[in-house]
Design brief:
By secondary structure, the chain is α/β, with parallel strands linked by helices. The chain has a single domain, classed as P-loop containing nucleotide triphosphate hydrolases (Rossmann fold), CATH 3.40.50. Helix content is 57%, strand content 12%. A 5-stranded parallel beta sheet has the order 2-3-1-4-5, sandwiched between helices. The longest helix has 17 residues. The protein starts with a strand and ends with a helix. The structure holds adenosine monophosphate.
């Protein structure tokens, strides 16, 4: 199964992706996680991406498309994957179409978690507090001011990605403001199990 989860930062994509990993035994391909690992390892990509990530902007299409291309080619992604945080621009969505076609792969579903953006800042403050309480590192870009910049980047560059898939007849919208278990149930309904 190949699935894309769309929605603004803080919409619950990561949580739902993790549940799908447990249920379907396919990997979650999160460009955000991969970039954070590159930053931590101080790889050339990480060094390039760090400042733009810290300020809440988008890393260049070339970099993230390259990362995803390599990742999709790995053996554990052969039976399927969940894309979380990619594609974030129409150029990335188009590059993904080309990649999938070249590999003879098809998307099974594109799911958009539709949320009230005013509620997201409160969610993100909670995510930072919970991480802190659990002794986990708090993401620098979960600072409320940086989060607002991420939301602006979403509205400027990424909000057009859902209509791209809608036009292709591939998009399903789910109310992401429901309790997490209901969101999971709605996703299972879309996937047929
Ligand atoms: P995320 O964990 O998905 O919220 O991503 C964290 C940050 O990584 C974003 O704010 C961007 O700076 C960068 N990033 C992740 N995925 C992408 C992408 N597909 N395109 C551009 N930048 C990305």
């Amino acid at each position: 199964m190949r699935l894309i989860l769309l929605g603004p930062p803080g919409a619950g994509k990561g949580t739902q992706a993790q549940r799908l990993v447990d249920r379907h035994h396919i990997p979650q391909l999160s460009t955000g996680d991969m970039l954070r690992a590159a930053v931590a390892a101080k790889t050339p990509i990480g060094i390039k991406a760090k400042d733009v990530m810290d300020s809440g902007g988008l890393v260049s299409d070339d970099i993230v498309v390259g990362i995803i291309k390599d990742r999709i080619a790995e053996p554990d992604a052969k039976n399927g994957f969940i894309l979380d945080g990619f594609p974030r621009t129409v150029a990335q969505a188009e590059a993904l179409d080309v990649m999938l076609k070249a590999e003879g792969m098809k998307l099974d579903a594109v799911i958009e978690l539709v949320v009230d953006q005013n509620a997201l800042v409160h969610r993100i403050i909670k995510r930072a507090e919970e991480a802190k309480a659990a002794g986990q590192p708090v993401r620098k870009d979960d600072d409320p001011e940086v989060f607002k910049t991420r939301l602006e980047a979403y509205n400027r560059d990424t909000a057009v990605v859902a209509p791209y898939y809608e036009k292709a007849g591939k998009l399903t919208k789910i109310d992401g403001m429901q309790p997490m278990d209901q969101v999971s149930a709605a996703i299972a309904g879309v996937l047929g199990h």
